[in-house]
Amino acid sequence: MRMRWREYRATILVAALSGAFGALLLQGTVLLTALVAGDSIGEKESVQLALGLVAVVFFAIAIFVGGIVTANTVGTVIAGRTRDIALLRLVGADARRLRASTARDGILVGLVGSLIGTVVGIGIMVGLVALGRSTGDLPETTPQLVTPMLVAPVVAVTLVTWLSSWVGSRRILAVSPIQASAAAVEPDADTVRSATGRRITAIALVAVGALLLAAGVVIGLVTMLGILVGMLGGILSFSGIVLAAPFVMPAVLRLVGRAMGSSPTARLAAENAVRNPARSSRATIGLVIGVTLVTMFAVATSSYYDMIVRASEQYPDDFAGVDETLAMTIGVFSVLFGFSAVIAAVGMVNTLSLSVLQRQRELGLLRALGFTAGQVRRMVLAEAAQMSVASVLFGLVLGVVYGWCGAQALLGSMLGGGLVAPSMPWFVLGGAVLVAAVLAAAASVAPARRATRVSPVAALAVD
Amino acid sequence: MTITTTEMGLAARVAGVSRRFGVGHGAVVALDDVSVGIRRGQFTAIMGPSGSGKSTLMHVMAGLDSSDNGSVWVGDTDITRLPDRDLTLLRRRRIGFVFQSFNLVPTLDARSNILLPFDLDGRKPNVDESRWIDSLVTTLGIADRLTHRPHELSGGQQQRVAIARALATRPDLVFADEPTGNLDSRSGREVLTLLTEACSRFGQSIAMVTHDPVAASYADRILFLADGRIVDERERSTPEQISAIMLAMEATR
Ligand SMILES: Nc1ncnc2c1ncn2[C@@H]1O[C@H](COP(=O)(O)OP(=O)(O)OP(=O)(O)O)[C@@H](O)[C@H]1O
Ligand SMILES: [Mg+2]
């Protein structure tokens, strides 16, 4: 299944971002180890281990988000190519072979993207080091940062891209040759398939996960080990939510859609966003994950901060000087989490704009029937706004729950701990609103303009 | 003082219209200096071999596609150089269209597709219009399919939903590109009777492309197109007469 170049663009970009992130993390680890650990061999090793662990965790999160984004991108492309695939099947192509070739393309795209990313990452690091030297923050001699180890992120990103292309191309198997002749586009084969099984698994995961989360919070009041239970609960329940996205997202979208008013444009947009659950969940789940991660971290650290402040008021001696380190740690970690959110946002913009392009005929029809070009543009914008607002809101809610549970489970037993109300840093809220607005605009303005530039008949002739 | 389209008894008119697709060697002349009118309150059939420019003529007349030169009027409005917004409003309020394929918005069910022209105008059908829509839906035999989405409908059912939509607002002018192409002869007859009645009872002007001489025999007037030109024109004729003209046209090609 050959794709067009523009359909690969986002996947390459995601792979490049992940590759650059990996390269930066690796080089940063080497550099920091050299700076922090003096000369003693033993100390060096333990610092390296600790930093390495952090780097691996964040890299894993980034490529996990990247993988989900890629799988959804591939899924979107394939949904838009249902008729092509059906035609190929009609003339005798083997579905499994089509799928395998799509996945194989993933290897190449992943490799190219991550290599580009690595080169960029090395370049950025060279710049940073030069900057550090000129300001005197870094010593004249720094260790060799470009090591053979840099191959590792490339391999990891390539493998993940391959795997997620494989997962995302699952839909090819469900395309039947009949769909080549269907006059209506977008027969949504995958919306109903195995829905019950999926629903039950998702509900079970969320239920068990929620119980474990609650248990984690309670245990956390006694011992730090609560975090282990809580983390398991978090992973289980979140997997459940991701699995349930096609059922859950339409409900969230509907809620947001109701707030958009009742002009024909808004109503049609609201219906469009909801009518194809598979499409809207593909477009949104990546961003939900990204926002959840960022919010979770922000809420956790901010709750942590509140506890520390409370504790340091009660026991000033034990907490002297803790403030500064804390602020810096929070800053660094925010950047690291933010990166995954960026990857998610790239994915969202791409999926949304792809799906606008795929609906060229539908938009042409609306224009033929009397939608003005402006109305079509507003409708597409409203749809994108609805999706990004819904995913940001949902991500915020999930992030608050997970962040608070995490902070409680880890720190509830701490000196001066106990139960605290979740606290939400204002910059997260402001950032989220901004992100939602920018994403909606980025995802819809250009493709809608393109869709309305041609005459209605030309748009209708597009296949 | 030039005579207006209305004074000519026409609902729409093109004068000296040409439409080329592509450039250079691969260029196709779809319409070649066509001048013709659709008579007000009449049922007009447009016939001609495949690729003769029938769909293109309808698109240009309805303001869906632009012409390279010549002028186009809908009623007394010269739409040749009308801004896109005005053109859209004119389409919305005065023209109904049934396309050759891809007629329905895939995310909306049949009922919402039929009500779409009202939605676009930001209003609901009034009591009289609702009654009219109900009767359309019944006549077209799609009453039990209203909650289905397009991909759940057969080709002919999709076509009938599109016809209901085109007639729902009782526009002055209806263009239908092979509306009976996917229908069996009985449903086809029902659709044709419906179109005839729309003309006689409500004074609507209807232009229909068809390849079927029987369908064309329902029309008050038949235009024959070949290679982008109007080559013949007849008042109401029998299917046999129409077949004979078509055969003669093919022979001289
Ligand atoms: N968008 C386009 N680009 C290039 N050529 C086109 C385009 N649309 C139509 N044509 C060409 O213009 C000519 C007339 O096309 P048109 O669709 O009007 O024919 P038609 O009479 O409706 O045929 P049919 O009965 O098969 O529907 C054809 O030769 C066609 O190939
Ligand atoms: Mg045609």
Briefly summarize what is shown.
The complex is a heterodimer of chains A (463) and B (253). Chain A has 463 residues and is mostly helical.
Distance between the termini of chain A: 17 Å
Total beta strand runs of chain B: 10
CATH architecture designation of chain B: 3-Layer(aba) Sandwich
- Indicate the proportion of strand residues of chain B: 25-35%
Query: If you compute it from the alpha carbons, what radius of gyration of chain B comes out, rounded to the nearest whole angstrom?
Result: 18 Å
Q: How do the strands of the widest beta sheet of chain B line up side by side?
A: 6-7-8-3-9-10
DSSP, total strands of chain A:
0
Number of helices of chain A: 16
Q: Largest protein interface?
A: A-B, 33 and 35 residues
Shape of chain B: globular
Order of helices and strands of chain B: EEEHEEHEHHHEHEHEEH
Name the average pLDDT of chain B: 88
Low-pLDDT windows of residues of chain A: 183-187
Question: Which ligands occur here?
Answer: adenosine-5'-triphosphate, magnesium ion
Report the top-level CATH class of chain B: Alpha Beta
Give the overall shape of chain A, derived from the CA principal axes: globular
Low-confidence stretches of chain B: none
GO molecular function (chain B): ATP binding; ATP hydrolysis activity; transmembrane transporter activity
Keywords (chain B): ATP-binding, Nucleotide-binding, Transport
InterPro entries (chain B): AAA+_ATPase, ABC_transporter-like_ATP-bd, ABC_transporter-like_CS, ABC_transpr_LolD-like, MacB-like_ATP-bd, P-loop_NTPase
Protein name (chain B): ABC transporter ATP-binding protein
